[in-house]
Amino acid sequence: MLEKILKKSGWTDIVISIIFILFGIVLIANPEIIVSFIAIILGSIVILLGIFRLYEYFMKDKTNRYLLATGIIAIIVGIIIMNCANTILSFFRILIGIWIICSGIMNLQTTIIWKEYQSKLWIISILLSILIIFAGIFILVNNGAILQTIGSIIVAYGVIDIIENFIFIRKIDDYLK
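The chain above was modelled as a monomer; its predicted structure follows.
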């Protein structure tokens, strides 16, 4: 009985991992679709919250001007989120790219100090610092870089999880003995 439950659980995890892999592939191949989808869902939720606030104001408490203001603001923000998702994503991409470049430059400065103290790790550290700087530049110039990176991580997670679950399913008998 326990063996059947564990095997069924393992297969369920494999199906979920396959869904994760497919989602990751979509993120890698076409991140704009995911951004649009998320923007529509998020914008719709914010608009619904705004409508709910307006409903509360008009139907329950017309003295609370806070409800009226937050309702109108929420509807406007929801519309902005739905229509400007790529602009918002680009803004965050630029901030993250700049932050990564700055981090790489600070690591490069630390590496130079390590060289002065004759540390043996300075060559590896300088290569990693340069790699970080290039990663930041890559994020700055590539619109879908962040989502593609997340997609790659999701695909890697899915593949690793599938392998672990196949091993688990094959070893259930050994675990139960």
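The chain has a mean pLDDT of 81.
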